[in-house]
Amino acid sequence: MKNDSEEIASSYDKYLPYVVDNECHRLALKSRDRSGYGIIKHRGKNHYAHRFQWLKMRGAIPEGLEILHAKGCFRDCIRIEHLSVNTHQANIDQIKQDAKQFCRVGHELNRTNSYKYNGSTICKLCKAKQLVEIARHKRELKTRASSQ
Ligand SMILES: [Zn+2]
Ligand SMILES: [Zn+2]
Question: What is the 137 CA–ligand 2 centroid distance (Å)?
């Protein structure tokens, strides 16, 4: 029987759709896991999109190793140049390091784009986006209330 990686490499002839964001190619499909990793469905099974991309373009991943994103890369990035094979420990180390330097969606947390609040680091770009959303929501509620 063929294993997963051989199966993907040989049968999946379409490339994953993406949108360009800075240097990254972010999966243009909607599904994400809780950490923001892109998820694709292939033959009824869920796969990590970046892992899938590697299997498709570079082939099998050696036993016990994982696919890592480049430093500061978006979690849903599938650009092959931003991916590498490494150990689980290296993956954990990088995620920890990234968490300090980048927000959940990948904005750089430098001195101008971040501030401390209650011991956690807040991303100004994300915060601004959130405030715009809240304002929009409030406006909507108001219009709804006044049209009744
Ligand atoms: Zn990337
Ligand atoms: Zn952010």
Answer: 20
